[in-house]
From TrEMBL:
Pfam family, one: RADX
PANTHER family given in the database record: RPA-RELATED PROTEIN RADX (PTHR14944)
Gene3D superfamilies, per database record: Nucleic acid-binding proteins
Protein name per UniProt: RADX protein
Single GO MF annotation: single-stranded DNA binding
Amino acid sequence: SKLTNLGHLEMTWRSRVHFHPLLVRILHKSRLKYYGKPEKKMDMPYQAYFEVADGSGMMSMVLWNSLCPEWYHSMKVGTVLLLAKYAIKSSYPFKTHPTPGDSQMKRFATIEICLNVRDPPTEISIIPEEMVKPEWGLPEVKYRFITRSELDDLPHNHSCDVIGLVTFVGRAERARKREHSEDFWLYRWAHAIDGTSEQPFILELFATSQPDVFEHIHPMTYLVCTQMRVMTENPSRTVYLTTSNESQIFIKGWHKGQPYTKDAKVKNFIQWMESQSEADQIKKTVIGGYYPFPRPPDSFLKY
């Protein structure tokens, strides 16, 4: 059928009601959001954001309500979608934006694609990777992997991706989303090493929409975290990484077929791991317990 592209949509969306089908690749994926309230009677008040791209640039796509449980887990970073009967709306101004791996890519920020179960009922098709043709001009997923030796030079709130061998994972803890609120964030601390520094990555991992991964992080697994934010803890200048709304976490058993397996820094890490003694690394691993961070000063006077 006749296809359109994101650049053409941005120029013509106000003058149209129906749009030609779109062929796009998912570059980023947000956590699943529940927006239900007791006074509003909605069956499935869910929402998820994706950043999708074709040869013309990148745009936000929103998956709404009952389409979320049906499609959210099938729509992975790297997945190619054929979309028909979708809606176009002005962008929600307060949503978070991931940092694209390709800084040259054009971003269409004024509008977003809405996938709904009705008005109109969207038609979604997943195109298997082996059927994707080069002439479609779809961009590849690109990452911003850093090594531990590079971390200390990065500015506060910088976005990056990391891979490392888990040496410590703490118990799951809770923090209130707001003071006096009944809602909590669930998170855990982890350390991961990559052989480029004596220091580990200190990772604050909030529960994303991947409970099967979050609950099974353990020492000696290869851990990949994408779209992490650099946090500098003053006055100690301790640097750690925290998850963002678009972070994805992967452990052993989940790496196969992921786009990051082609990244040069990921390959370098695998080579380094193959040169290590597993028995030596196991001796350095720790699991569970309370992890006070940032650490209090070692004397009351300094405190």
